[in-house]
Amino acid sequence: MFLSRSVLAFIFLSSLLLFPANSIRLFKAEDESDLFMEAPVYQNGPHCPVLGKDALICDSSIVHIAMTIDPEYLRGTIAAIHSVVKHGSCPQSVFFHFIASDSSSVVPTQLTRIVKSVFPSLSFKVYVFQKKLVRDLVSSSIRQALDNPLNYARIYLADLLETCIQKVIYLDSDTIVVDDIQKLWNINLTGSRTIGAPEYCNANFDKYFTSDFWSNPRFSKVFEGKRACYFNTGVMVMDLGRWRQGDYTREIEKWMRVQKDKRIYELGSLPPFLLVFGGDIEAIDHRWNQHGLGGDNLVNSCRTLHPGPVSLLHWSGKGKPWVRLDAKRPCSVDFLWAPLDLYKFHGYSRHRQLDGFRFDSL
């Protein structure tokens, strides 16, 4: 029986909603490339570094970006890539490192073909993350999506990526960049700092950890002499050389083992990062992570942009823009994501104009 491409695409979208882990396996390779439009070609300007003939994977003169990639968030990942190359001054001088799960329901080679069909000239590599690394370390959290082992892959970037890669920008799949990514890449991590990210020192730090944590001096002393500052791990500049020297993957794993035994926090992969790096990161301008646009972790609520200029938008929280747009229940900020969506079979109009929004960074 012959099925048209539009019917195949409908089945694919339905499977993403109902069976996200199995969605990619429903298709043969020749069908996958029809799910997304091919992105325009974005080329380097004359001021960009001359690209060598050899592989760019170890080229320290270009921007390295790490992201996870999976069927459920693939649409967000494609939009995030599009945003980086569209707004970058040197879009061909960016190398993407995609981390895929080794789950039998996800085929990294098929994800590779999809990305290649949308961005034929994109420089990237897909790595396989073994779920067994965190199988006995992940604890249940307040939202099931946070328990996905792939959320913890960012902890293992220094192990997964080639040792020649000393620096990387990590981005969540529900982000878009509306500024030149080179500006974020050029931020220096001073002293011995390993991570750079926007931090928030007026947040109620107590809420990120349980009373069992704060009542135990052996645990709570980790913050002695430090400013209690929160940072979101969905956007980070990471010095992988310093990470490897400090063996920070093992440090985070230690806290995850404590969590399994003592239940010292309720959120997913964020608290162990705070325990190791909280109060000791390179503070980056807040414009580089306008987070919380998906509401909180339990309620899909609409939020407005923070005051000030914007360079990166982040739909952290329960609500995702592609889901709300297709359901015809969007928030205003979701229409800022829509122009970067390359999925062919979306359920909304891309032509809506928004008043009152402007990006001072552009």
TrEMBL record:
<keyword id="KW-1133">Transmembrane helix</keyword>
<dbReference type="InterPro" id="IPR002495">
    <property type="entry name" value="Glyco_trans_8"/>
</dbReference>
<dbReference type="InterPro" id="IPR050748">
    <property type="entry name" value="Glycosyltrans_8_dom-fam"/>
</dbReference>
<keyword id="KW-0808">Transferase</keyword>
<feature type="signal peptide">
    <location>
        <begin position="1"/>
        <end position="23"/>
    </location>
</feature>
<comment type="similarity">
    <text>Belongs to the glycosyltransferase 8 family.</text>
</comment>
<keyword id="KW-0328">Glycosyltransferase</keyword>
<keyword id="KW-0735">Signal-anchor</keyword>
<dbReference type="GO" id="GO:0005794">
    <property type="term" value="C:Golgi apparatus"/>
</dbReference>
<keyword id="KW-0325">Glycoprotein</keyword>
<keyword id="KW-0472">Membrane</keyword>
<keyword id="KW-0732">Signal</keyword>
<dbReference type="InterPro" id="IPR029044">
    <property type="entry name" value="Nucleotide-diphossugar_trans"/>
</dbReference>
<dbReference type="GO" id="GO:0016757">
    <property type="term" value="F:glycosyltransferase activity"/>
</dbReference>
<protein>
    <recommendedName>
        <fullName>Hexosyltransferase</fullName>
        <ecNumber>2.4.1.-</ecNumber>
    </recommendedName>
</protein>
<dbReference type="Pfam" id="PF01501">
    <property type="entry name" value="Glyco_transf_8"/>
</dbReference>
<comment type="pathway">
    <text>Glycan metabolism; pectin biosynthesis.</text>
</comment>
<keyword id="KW-0812">Transmembrane</keyword>
